[in-house]
């Protein structure tokens, strides 16, 4: 993580934000001490895909788009 003094960051905000967009993290410092970190956001779509794959190990995802007021084949077999 690159350390950048706050005064330098203020003068070059677009440049440093471009680096963050590319995936780099920045540590903002004041008088040599870290005061903040600027990191890119997590890709929530990737996280959601990983969560779904983990669920598939324990659950079965089937037809979730059919209307709920339709009679199921299992209900017809019982009668």
Automatic annotation (TrEMBL):
Stored InterPro entries: Antitoxin_Phd/YefM, YefM-like_sf
Functional note: Antitoxin component of a type II toxin-antitoxin (TA) system.
Family: Belongs to the phD/YefM antitoxin family.
Name used for this protein in its record: Antitoxin
Source organism of the structure: Trichlorobacter thiogenes
